[in-house]
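Researcher: I need the complex structure. Ligand is fe (ii) ion. Inputs:
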Amino acid sequence: MRLKIKINRNSKGSDNLSRLSDEILALLIRNAVHETRNSLFYATLNNHLSVKGFKNSANFCAKQIEEEQSHFKKVWDYIQKRNAHAILSPIPEVIGDYSDLVFAFRSALNLEYQTTEIWQEVYDKAKDTSDGITLLLAEKFLKIQESEETEFMAINDELALIGNDALYQKLWDNTYEF
Ligand SMILES: [Fe+2]
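Model: Output:
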């Protein structure tokens, strides 16, 4: 799902882009790092699945790389718009042999859950501190996460039935409509 966030400086007076609170800034930075990690994770998946011959799944992961990068960019742009000074923390490693479909997509779903958790924290904090613009941002991302989770849960449900049989996995990869 594509994300469009428009910030209208004049909608609630000219001063609605005031300084971000330190706590919200820290959460947004955590999110930016996490989105980058997600994109590296999908790049790894894309490679492992492609080498293994799961072309359809590999293509799907290639699209996810771009999507996660665009999420990072949106969050980063937002931090700039709020004129906050951001220092990125190191990106956690992407570890694992993701050439198995079941393991790969279970890992993907877990990362999506983590993304949702961070956005939920942003949402709660924005609400507590009456930061309406951040609240709007969090709402939009939570909607995206809802559809991401639904998509990945459906994939995981199917793969749980298929299990680790290489032939069935290949057949599934050929026929699943991502
Ligand atoms: Fe994302």
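Model: Summary of the prediction. Residues 22-52 form the longest helix (31 residues).
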